[in-house]
Amino acid sequence: MLTGLLCIAAVLLDRWQGEPRQWHPLVGFGALAQKAEQLFYGPPQLSAAARRERGIEAVILLLAPWVLAAAILAWLPLLGTLVALGLLYLAIGARSLGEHAEAVATALEADDLPLARQRVGMIVSRDTDELDEEGISRATVESVLENGCDAIFGALFWFALTGAAGAVLYRLANTLDAMWGYRTPRYLHFGWAAARLDDLLNWIPARLTALGYMAVGPQPALAWRCWREQAPGWKSPNAGPVMAAGAGALGLALGGPARYHGQWQTRPALGQGLAPGAADIRRAVALVRRALWLWLAVILLGGWSLA
Fold it and tell me: What is the pTM (predicted TM-score) of this model?
């Protein structure tokens, strides 16, 4: 019961305050990860196996102290509850996700494509300099759906299951994956551990996120069909179910070719229906918010039934 109340309180705190504007711990962790990369990456002549070992060591060194500290602090009498609430609040970013998406939609509605490209470039890793309105809308909707899991539901899942330490582990591992989890020459081996850990931690939350999108979306049958038929063809085992179910729930056509780091990638189609526009960005944000309230209700009712 307490876990459910803490989840609701953290979501409400995030909605009220948003992410810290200064001294966000994840920003500091990112800077620490950059220094660890410089220390552990090693010389160019290293073998793939040696590079992978160094990546594993870096992940362990970066994650273990913070997860252990969170576990110890959360067990403290009285103070532990406040620590758990604060850590979960810092681990989720529902308001920030909505604000970034709204900024893109507003620029598109003002017919300011350069500004829209700049703003969508802040939340996606693909190249945005030549995207048209449809491409910007598609990239933003895909980001909202995928980051619903990464920035909200994954942290809630691990907090409900294992407490504050689980939420910290999830969010920091997800941050490392965002920094190192690329199949580029530099990170293919060094980022292997970060990418695989993120895949493992996201496996169940991603499917529960997809289930949430299907449950609260206007087209649940289409969401289920797209999830079942399209997700296996997506390159990510977790992003596939999330985005396929979300695209189907919204009745949108997502996926397709996209350019990353100057190279075009062939991506399967996701969803079914019309190409997305600026209005669909807000529909995607609303879908994530409805799924969030469903999650909170389930967590609270689950805790109540076990009390």
Answer: 0.95
